[in-house]
Structures are given as C-alpha cells and as structure tokens.
Amino acid sequence: MRTSQNTDNERKVKRGKILSPFMQRKLAVTLGVIMLALIALIVAIYMLVKNNSEEYNKIVLSQRQASYDSRTIPFRRGDIMDRNGTVLATSQKVYNLILDPKVIHSGEGDRYVEPTIQALVSYFSYDEGELRTLIKEKADKSYVKYKKELSYDEKSGFEEYIKNQNATYVKKGEKARVRGIWFEDEYKRMYPYGSLACNVIGFSSADGSVGTGGVEQYYNETLMGINGREYGYLDNDTKLKSVLKEPTDGETVVTTINTNIQMSLEKYLNEWQNDDVGSKVAGAIVMDPKTGEILAMGSTNQFDLNNPRELDESKYTNSDLMELGRKEAVGVYKRQNPDAEKISVDEVGKYFSEDEILSFGKQVAWNQVWRNVVISDTYEPGSTAKSITLAAALEERAITPSTTFNCEGFIALSDGIHTWRIRCHNHNGDGIIDAQTGLMRSCNVYLMNTAFALGAENFVKYQHIFGFGEKTGIDLPAEADTSTLVYPAEGLGRTTLATNSFGQNYNVTMVQMAAAYCSIVNGGNYYKPHVVKQILNGNGTVIQDVKPEILRTTCSKSTSDFLREALYQTVEGGTGTKAKIQGYHVGGKTGTAEKIPRSAKNYLVSFIGFAPVEDPQIVVYVIVDTPNLVGEAQATASFAIFIERKIMNDALQFLNIPPVSDTDPEDSINKKLSNSSEGISNEAMGEQVTTGSDAENEGGESETAETDEEGNAIVRTQAPPVTDEVISGDDEGFEIPDAVPNSGEETGEAEEAED
Amino acid sequence: MGKKKKIKHFFDFSLMSTIIFITGFGLLLMYSASGYSAQNSMNDAMYFLKRQAIFAAGGVAFMLVVSFIDYHLYAKFSIPIFAAACLLQIGTLVIGVASHGSARWINLAGVRFQPSEVTKVAVIIMLSTLITKRIYHMHEWKTIFQVAAVGVLPGVFIAISNLSTAMIILGITFFMLWISSKKVVPFIAAGVAGTAVYIFAYPVARLLQRLNILQEYQLTRIFAWKDPSSYADETFQTLQGLYAIGSGGIFGKGLGESVQKFLMPEAQNDMIFTIICEELGLFGAVSIILIYAFIIYRLYDDARNARDLFGSMLTIGIMCHVALQVILNIAVATNTIPNTGVTLPFISYGGTSLLILMGEMGIALSVSRQIRLET
Q1: Of B75, B218, B305, which has the smallest distance from its Cβ to A3's Cβ?
Q2: Which of B250, B297, B334 sits opposite A41 (nearest CB)?
C-alpha cells in the first residue's frame, strides 16, 4: 500500500487492486446498502403518493382556499380636521376578539377547551361561566365575535401570552393548548373633542360606512374608502389563483371650522344656558364674509359624538320617550297602512308593542338631539331682516339714504272693513328720520314705508336674491327648505309686506341670515356658505381645494358701504351699543321676534354682528329662542348681544385681527346712547322690554307659516307681527295677510280676532 | 504482458458533468421553491436564486481548480486542517451567530458560514490520512478506537449545537472504519443495533412516557414523527411536506406550480425535496434520486480504482458524505425518520454547504485524475 504517488516506472495498475479484497467487498456492501436505502425512500414516496394523493390534494386545496377565504380588509375612514389641521374625527385601528368554538373543541378529549378558557379569563378577566356556556352553545360555529375594540397592546399582549402558555404546556409535556382565538382588524371612529362641533362633524357608523349628520354624512362618499379583499378561485385548469385587492382608504376632509372659535362659541352658549337665564334653545354661527367659510357653528343642543345614542335621562325620562313614541307610532301606522283609518295616540298600544313604541320614542329623541339648529330650524328673524329690506330698496332706488319718512309711532292700514295700526317701538314716533337713523332706531314705520315704496314684487325678488326662501347650498345635510316659508309676490298683501319688512311672518334659517349679512358687509357678493375647505388624500396631499363660490351679487358696493356704516352706527349709537368691543369697530343689528302663537308671548331674540367695520373679517350671528322667563321679559335682545360680543371678542383675538384703537370708554357711551335704543328701559340689562301699561297685548291674529317636523309649511293662527325690543299692542286689530305661503293641509279659514 | 503499455490518465468527466447538471437543475428548482418567500421577505423573487447562482458558479470553478491540485497535499496538511476546523468549531460556540435557533454560523472576514461543513471535510481528510498510515493495524481494537476518536470527538462536540451534522460525521466515520477494518461482526452488530433503535424508538418512547421517566417534551419529536397530525403545531413543516409529496402524484403539478411553497416557510432549504415531489411528482423524485445514485456510483468506482489508498479513502469518505446527506434529507421529507435539518446536496439553498460540497467533488475528481488506465 502506498501513501504517495507511485513512480512512473510502475506500469501496471490493475483496476481494483489497490484495495484489498475484503475492502472491495465491504465497499460493495456499502454501496449496496446506500442503494437499498435510496430504493426504500423511493418506495416510501411511492406509498405516500399512492395512498394519500387524493386526500392530501384536497387538504392542500382547502388550506390554500382557507388562506384566501374571502378575507375582507377594512378601509380606513378619512379624518376630519379643522382649518388648522386639528383632528376632529379620526379612525383608529382596533381589534375584535374572535372565538372559533369549532377549533376549540377540535382537540381530542377537549384538550384545547380548558386552556383556552383559562387564558381568556386570566388575561382579560372575562367571565368564566359566560365563556364556558358560549363556547358550548356555539360549538359548531367558527366565528363568534366575543369582544370588540381591543387595543393593539391588548391584542399583541394576549398573542404573546398565548405563545408563552403553549410553550409552557409543551415544556410540561401536556397536550393542552390554547387554540381557536384570533383577532380581526377593524377601525373605530374617535372624536377627540367629544361634543365639540357635533352638528358640523356628525358621527359615523361602527364600520365607517354610514355617516349621520354633519360632514360625516354630507361627505360620506369622500370619507369612505373601499374595502380590500383577498380571495382565491379555481381557474380553468383547476389551479388556485389568488387575488389580493388592497383597501383604498378614505380621504381626509379639512373643514373651515376654527376649533378655538368653536370652543368659545360653545362655551358662551353653555354659560348662557347653564349659568344664566337659559332658553329653550340658543344657536350661533361665525362666518368669514370674504369667503362664505363657516368658522364655527353650534347650538345649545349638544351631544357626545363618541356616544351619540346616549340620551340625557334627565331630559328624556322613560315616560317622555313613551309619549314621543306613541305620537310617532301614529305616523308609522299611517305610513304602513295608508288606506286604514287613522289611529289615535291612545290606540297605538293595540298595534305596537311597548318596546317598539319606546324605540320610536328614542328615534324621535335622537333626531331632536342631533338636529342642527343653525341650518335645520326656521324662525321669524325679526329686525335683523331690516338691513335686507333697506338694501333692496336702495338697490331699486325706491329710497335713497337721505329719503326721510315721518314716524308717528304707527302706520294705519285698512282693507276697507278694518283698520289696523302697526306700531313702532317708540309709541311717540321717531319723527322725521332718514334711512340710517331708521336702521339705528330699528324704526318699523320707516321700514314699512320703505317696503311700500319698494313694492311687493321687488321685495320678494330681493328676499330671494338674499337667499330667503332658497337653500343656501351649504355642504351639510338636512338644510331646511324655506321655499314655502316666504310669500310669493302675488301672495304678499300690504299688511304682510308691512310685517315682512321688519322680519316677521316669514321664516329663515340662521345660515341664510348669516350668509345674507356676509354679502351685505362684503360689498355685495353672496358666497355659498360652506364648512369644507380641502380634501386630502391618505398622504396628506391636497387633492381638492374648495374655492369660495360667489353665487350671485346681492347689492352694489355703495349699498354695502352705506349699510356697513349704518350698522356700525347702530352699534355705536343705536340699539346695539352693548355689542361694542373696545379697540374694534363693530357693526351689527339686533332682532326681537315674537313667536307663534303670538298669544303665548314667547320671543326669539337675536344679534348679528361683524367686525372690523372697515374690512369685515367675521360675522357672528346669535339667536336665543324663548329665554326661560315669562312673557315680555324674554324680549331682551341683549341676551343675544352678550353672547355674540363674547364670541366676537374671542374670535378677533384668535384670528389675530389688530385693534384700530384702544380708547373708547364704553361705559359713558352706553349711558349717553341708551335712550336712543328703541324701547330700552334704563335698567342695567339694557334692552329689556318695558312691561308698563303702554305695552298692551295685541289683538288680532293672523296666519303665518311655520315648519313642522318634516319642514313642510303648516299654517297656524298667530298673533300679528311685533316689533323688536318692545312689544306694543293696542286694542286695534291687524290685517290678516291676503295670502299665506303655500300652506299645508291645515289651511283653514283666516281667523280674525279682536279683543 | 510483455508489451509496454502506454499510460493513460483517467478523468471522471461523467461525474463532473453530472454534478454541473444537478447544480444547474437545482438552481431552477430552488428558484421555483423560493420565489414566493423571496418576493415576500426581500421584495425580490430572484433574491435567493441570485445568491445561490453566484455560489454555484463559484462552486463549479472551485471544483475544477481543486481537481487540479494533487490530493496528497491534504495528507501533509491534515493536522493543520483538522486543528483549524476544531478551532473554528469552538469559535462558533463563543462568537457564533444564532440562526434558526442554535449558534451554527460564524462571521469570518465578513463572510458568514457554517464551520461544521468544514469540519466534515477535515474529518474525512484526517480519517483518510490515519487509516492509510495504520492500515495494517486496523483490525486492532486499539487502533480502531484511536482512529474513531478523530471523527467521534468533533461529532460529539458538534452534537451540542447541530445534531444532524454530528450524525453525518459519525456516519462517515462509521463507514470509513467499517471498510478499512477487517472486523465484520462488531460493525454489523452496530448496524443492527442502530436499526433496532430506529424501529423501536416509538414503542420505547411510549413506554418511557408511561413510566414517567422522561418528560413528554423530550420525546415530542418522536411522537410527532409517528403521529404528525396530532402534533400539528410541532410538525407543521413535516406535515405540509407530506401534503406536498402526496398531492404531487405521479407526474406532479408541473415546474413552478407548487401550492405548498406558499405555506412552508423557507421551502428552499431542507424541505426542498417535498416541493420537487409536488412539482415533478414521483417521476421527478425518482429521477433526482437516480442522479444521486449515479453520482454515488461514480464515487464508488473512483474509490475502487484510485491510485492509492489515501485517494481511495478520501473518495469513500466523500461518497458516504453525499449518500448520507441525500438519504437523511429525503427520509426527513418523507417522515421516515424524525425531523432533523439536513440539506439536500447541490440543490438546497446554502452557500457554505454548496461550496464545501464542490470542494469535495474537486478532491474526488483530483483522485480520479490520477487513475491510470491500462490500454
């Protein structure tokens, strides 16, 4: 045997000679063993294929199919932000805990059941008995949603826990395992500010597919994405193909809302409602007159967007809900059985169960709570509408700023049978006054004369130009339809023209009034009021800019300039002196409307202000509907002014609008001018109604329009028009309007009453 | 016999071309198996293919270079090579990189590789050298044990971190001793004992479990091996591998049509044979096995005809190495033996393993180069 290379002279090397025979044999045996082993393996593969081919094929296909089992991948609903990027609504990923009782029971001898239940109980402290029954009852189910909205930490923590538990079981050599629990992705809608701007934002359903109210509803399509999906299918060659469709996330909506101003607005409304006199409802809106953007909007109707269906039990007791439900049930019955006899409220028990009635009641209550007062509620505006009447008359040159009328305290109107006196606040009359003074003193006589000079046709034309009776087209749902709540030209008689001229006997919404004022103070451009500024995609890139949209021109620049000045003077030395803000030039107009029915002596007071007068940047409009006082004490415009002033003051700071002067000792001015505000008593509250002997109840009743719940016009008998600030009635009746706006079914005979 | 014969040198071209063929074919199979997971984890379906292709090309070049090196050089350097391998192995324990559980990898000059692969070659060279030197004493127990220690000691040491490599090293040692020693009965007895352990592993494990001598987790591998579907958590890969083989049928689903590769993590590694079965069926599996059989046969033939004992022993060691790895890998894939990580030579993904294997083939070719033919 050699260990090194042979020398060349060795010639013959016979094959195989180098190994001794036993080694040759052993080597051959080794090869044989190896070959046998390989053959054995071929046999093993053959047996596998022969015995299990079909079964394994099925398993493989079903596993494959299962991995694509039409898994839905949820989209993420877009955020809602305020104008500065503060997130008002967002979607957070949460996890639903899904039990698969079928899998839990799949182990032999139920070896998964106990560990699984124990894991859930010890990690989440779930109720053991409940779990046990649930898993038993639904043993044949594969999908039981047990807990919703777990956080990522809870989910990953539990998954880690399961892993450790199972590892422990393996170590201990037990066959027990935690099985059949998995998590499903979902998004949860969150509203970080709770009830803030609830009416503007609205809320969305749990799966993010349906928005209710506000931007959530109006921009639902934009906010919504498209669910992704993963699924498999067998193609022509029975090969499994998989398709993965990624979800498309929703787009982000940037609103025009300024969170700071919105907070102030709600703060002051709540202060009024909770710490002050309070009222049935109070609402406010802040707009940018240069763009029609709504900076803030709200009312005393507030609800938590995170729990929109939670009713305040002090407001809605069970019996209240039943009461509402019974009323609703009548209507439901009527809709379900259009041909049947109408049932009465007492009879509903026969047709509906208690639970049904209660749920009707809740529906009604929710709709009341969720109602956006600013755009859905209509009311008679009162004297704030005088600016519109003046603007119309100036545009049509029916009057000029220097046109004077003599106010003797009332105007007498006659239809040939009766004669009515429609009074001014100042029973003694304002004397001979021009347009500006008419507005400053809120002189009804001046406005009535103006309207007469303008004529019914032009008056109605300008109502529509200023947006009354029209929808503003605001990008929020449930805007009230006021088309039937203003008179058509041919229906506007002399008396209604007279009352219309100072804002009674027709209904408007807050947003209509605010938008109309925006056009008056900005030079005559009527911007479409809107709450959305931009649409962003998932990366935050702007994909759509909502440009301010001028719908029409309402009045000329000169008219606008005149009214701006007149409204400024109204605050400087007229009925609105309480609205003054030190350092700023503020303009504005008060309004006090008597509500229907007039006999109830309920009032809606309001104030609309704007600043700075030189270059108006904000318009703030506040209404206070039926203050919690009795009778004419309600008719105090300063309730609204004080709220407006506080909001305006804050808004000016938030918007960094520099003051023009820091003088203005307002106390003395207030004092000096207090007498000039119409009908103001000298008490500190300001324009409180005097309830002296001269303020008698009015007599006659007339009809005017009001909306019912569905927004249809219904006609109610009502007291004649009132002026703002002071209620002055006498024994004489008022003319019945010649016609009423498209009345509903209750159009009855015009009732004339005199007392 | 008086005629003077012209000496002709032999070169095992058939072995070389078969190796190049199976390496190339292996790349194709590896790409099919790894494309999906590469796309998922690396965002590049060709990731594993590219890396493996570089190693394969380098490996073939390496093999050819080695085939020109006189293999007697290894006998001279057997001790340094062996010592280096042992040092690397110890180094792995100290500074090794854990991958897939145990520390088997080491970073050397920026290259990450498995020292245990080197150890296999070092053991083969060392054993060959010793056996060649002491061939006349190989019937003595003392010599047998002394020689065996060269394989057994590193084998036991590696068993700490890598049982399957240890088994291969011990297997190689066993076969090389068996062939070189005149003793027959003790080796056959050992073989029978090994078979008995294999056959009785399960009943014994059950007995031990019942007697509560060993904890179940220690026996889990054995239980899971006999009853994979009851231990679905522990035997996921094995079970899915079986499904793959079974669903492949006789002719398979076609190259690239495997469904199981989507489910099995790292299908390109140890379990690649199951994907081959799924895609190419029993037919393809048998073809691959035949190719291995041919390689083994060529090595056998070279070993028989080697010019000297050292070359012969080297080739025997290499043959045993390839054979053991093929058998163990396929046996694991078919669940014939409990799961243990052994790569399929020339096909499984893994740079070190492929390069070392190519080096071994180069040595075998170098041995074949020195065979003289009678003409």
Answers
A1: B75
A2: B334
Place of tokens 């030395």: A573
Q: Could you tell me where in chain A the CATH 3.40.710.10 domains are found?
A: 375-718
Which residues of chain B have a CB within 8 Å of the CB of A66? none
Q: Does A52 touch chain B (CB under 8 A)?
A: yes
Asked if residue B247 has pLDDT above 90, the reply is no
CB-based contact B306:B369 (threshold 8 Å): no
- List, as own/partner pairs, every contact residues A312-321 make where C-beta atoms lie below 8 angstroms and the sequence separation is at least 24, other chains included: A316/A365, A318/A358, A320/A361, A320/A365, A321/A358, A321/A361, A321/A362, A321/A365
Identity of the highest mean pLDDT range in A173-177, B30-34, B221-225, B317-321: B317-321
Could you give the angle at which helices A557-573 and A666-673 cross, rounded to 10 degrees?
90
Residue B286: its pLDDT value, please?
A: 95
Show me where the domains of chain B are located: 8-373
pLDDT of B331 reads 92
More confident residue, B202 or A711: B202
**Is pLDDT of B284 > 90?**
yes
Nearest-angstrom CA–CA distance, A440 and A565: 10
CA–CA gap between residue A320 and residue B120 (Å, rounded): 89
Residues of chain A with pLDDT under 50: 1-14, 16, 664-740, 742-755
CB atoms within 10 A of CB A150: 19
In this complex, is the C-beta atom of B128 within 8 Å of any C-beta atom belonging to chain A? no
pLDDT at residue B233 tops 80: no
B247, B289, B372: residue with CB nearest A41: B289
Q: Which residues of B touch A9 (CB under 8 A)?
A: none
The residue to which tokens 């305006």 are assigned: A648
Inter-chain CB pairs, A–B, below 8 Å: 169
For residue B165, what are the contacts with CB-CB under 8 A and spacing of at least 6? B116, B117, B119, B120, B158
Distance CA(B184)–CA(B144), nearest Å, equals 13
Report yes or no: A430 and A441 within 8 Å, Cβ to Cβ. Answer: yes
pLDDT at A312: 80
Contact status of B327 with chain A (Cβ, < 8 Å): yes
One-letter amino acid identity for A267? K
**Sign of the C-alpha dihedral, residues A716, A597, A365, A341?**
negative
**What is each CA distance from A362 to A194, A305, B195, B236, in whole angstroms?**
21, 17, 79, 54
H-assigned helices in chain B: 13-42, 47-67, 72-76, 78-95, 115-133, 141-159, 163-180, 185-210, 216-226, 236-248, 272-305, 309-333, 351-369
Return the pLDDT at B234.
66
Contact A729, A423 (CB under 8 A): yes
Q: Which residue has the higher pLDDT, B172 or A184?
A: B172
* Interchain proximity A1–B250, CB inside 8 Å: no
Q: Does domain A375-718 have CATH number 3.30.360.10?
A: no
CATH architecture of A65-91+187-253: Alpha-Beta Complex (3.90)
Q: Do B316 and A2 touch (CB under 8 A)?
A: no
Amino acid at A691: T
CA–CA separation, A23 vs A26, rounded Å?
A: 5
| Sign of the dihedral defined by the CA atoms of residues B266, B271, B273, B276, in that order | negative
Delimit the CATH 3.90.1310.10 region(s) of chain A.
65-91+187-253
pLDDT of residue B79: 92
Q: CB B233 to CB A166 under 8 A?
A: yes
Cβ distance A30 to B135 less than 8 Å, yes or no, reads no
- Residue B34, min C-alpha distance to chain A (Å): 18
User: Is the distance from CB of A540 to CB of A528 less than 8 angstroms?
Assistant: no
Q: Spell out which residues of chain B touch residue A239, defining contact as CB-CB under 8 Å.
A: 257
Q: Find the closest chain A residue to B300 by CA distance.
A: A31
Edge-to-edge order in the sheet of strand A279-288: A293-299, A279-288, A618-627, A603-611, A587-594
